[in-house]
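PROTEIN–LIGAND DATA SHEET

This sheet pairs a single protein chain with one bound small molecule, pyridoxal-5'-phosphate, given as SMILES. Inputs appear in the order they were entered. The predicted three-dimensional arrangement of chain and ligand is reported afterwards as a token string under its own label.
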Amino acid sequence: MIINKGFPNLDFSKIPSPCFVLNEQSLIRNLELLQKIQKQAGIKILCAFKGFAMWSTFPLLRKYLSGATASSLHEANLCFEMYGEKAHLCAPVYVDNEIEEITNISSHITFNSISQFERFSSIAEKKNLQIALRINPEYSEVETDLYNPCVPGSRLGIIADDLPDILPDSVKGLHFHSLCEQNSDTLERTLKVVEEKFGKQLRQVSWLNIGGGHHFTRKDYDVNLFVETIKSFKKKYKLDIIAEPGEAIGWETGYLVSTVQDVINSHGIKTAMLDVSFSAHMPDCLEMPYHPRVFGAVESGTNTISYRLGGHTCLAGDFMSNFHFEQPLEIGDKIIFDDMIHYTMVKTNTFNGVKLPSIGILKSDGSFKLVKDFGYEDYKSRLS
Ligand SMILES: Cc1ncc(COP(=O)(O)O)c(C=O)c1O
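PREDICTION REPORTED AS:
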């Protein structure tokens, strides 16, 4: 039995396991919406590579978005080489042996602290980069501390008390990032706080980057409120606005296909052992934590069978509980995790030497294209 209830017809003989499968049509749907938001609100939307960096899709992204944001030298390199543009940089810290190279291939740079600005801004200025400071509004509605840049004592961004009233001449922009998977009402409230705390400085710059965490492509996202909020903010401060979502680009654009390799029964607890790992391939499930959707899994009921899904690393906690199926799982069944494109490929690791999932695209014409298969060399090349 293949667990594929509610799942589009896929020819599993063509899809290796494990494999991330991006649905091209779903990505286009997201990009079209983001393009519409850019036009209606009069802003630029960049792709944050930290959340989505599947470079085989960059030609498509370029048609709709206004560039990309990088948080490291390697992401900036990827932007320059594969996206064909200089990146907007925003990293918590720039390191001295990378600053020359990273500023050669970037158009904008945001400094996370005054000391980083003092140390490196002259290098950026000589190369005509647009310079910004990251501010920390100390207001956030993010409930999980792991994802909250505004926790007391946060190392991310300059708090209002520490930002000079008069900004240095070279500072052309401000940047904040304090949202995570949030709707436009959170942005509205956040902007009010930003105005209260940084109103003076907002009048001295020409652009504001409102970071990521805007869940633009989620079904209940209030686009109209976003557009109205941004329009009135722009009118008041005469600023260009930039947003840099990562998750919203890859949101609900594909799956991670895996296969049951064994079923273990211990003290009545059944674990379906897979050829993927939560720890190595879906780390947010354990970190956030959140319970991923699996095609064919149902609500618990009298006739359902309960399973843990087990990862194939030796980490004792590499499993998740409470998946219920109407039929017993068998070796060879496909377990398909939904919405596994953003913050997965960019975070995978080879702990235990496990193979990285392949990467493929379900094209708009229904055909499947394998774009990457990983092997032993990928594991070996990370060690010496
Ligand atoms: C500075 C910055 N910009 C953008 C993003 C992207 O956020 P998201 O993927 O939630 O939209 C992040 C995520 O951590 C971030 O730290």
